[in-house]
Amino acid sequence: MQLILASASPRRSEILSRITDKFKIVPSNIIERADGPPEEQVLALAEGKARAVATDHAGVIIGADTVVVIDGRILGKPHSRDQGQEMLQVLSGRGHDVLTGLCVLRTDDNSAYRWCEKTKVWFRDLTESEVQHYLNTQEYLDKAGGYAIQGLAAVFVTGINGDYFNVMGLPLCRLVLLLRKAGLDLLA
User: Fold this and answer.
1) pLDDT tens string 93-141
2) Is the pTM higher than 0.90?
């Protein structure tokens, strides 16, 4: 069966390519809106992305959605420099959760395997000049919570508890297990 990544994210593609080079990228282009608790939202969006791609493509489809949560507040992707600055200021000196909803969808029998992965990340106190310097790199754009742990923002992180790849947008360990449940064992 064709393996399809329902995402335009270069990070997700890079992570998936660590275990296989036999996959196709088909962005879902859905409007990313959902209601309910953060865990339910990311699961609904991940499945929505997979199902949107399934309308025109057959195979095993991977959908994913990532958010940052702090004090019950969801931080998605900042839409402006001001939003990016606000997010970094909120995260400064504190811990937060990174949630990724995963959905592995088989189009032949319409079975969906879902999981919400949670990773705890702690930031040190950030100075205003560090925040401005980081924003100048534009690395914050298109990143949940306004930062890329694999980039310059790595110097902000004092600790992590959970899957590092989850913070990048695709929890690799859990993905392998969901794919196996769906009948696709990439490590066999």
Assistant:
1) 999 999 999 999 999 999 999 999 999 999 999 999 999 999 999 999 9
2) yes
Round to whole Å and give the CA distance between 136 and 92: 17
How many residues can be counted in the chain? 188
Can you give the residue range of the structural domain that contains 101? 3-181
Give yes or no: 109 in active site.
no
Catalytic residue among 35, 65, 108, 142: 65
The answer to whether position 186 is within a domain reads no
Rounded to whole angstroms, how far apart are CA atoms 93 and 97? 14
What CATH number did the domain enclosing 20 receive?
Answer: 3.90.950.10
DSSP assignments along 75-114, one per residue: E---SSHHHHHHHHHHHTTSEEEEEEEEEEEETTTTEEEE
Q: Which residue has tokens 């000196």?
A: 93
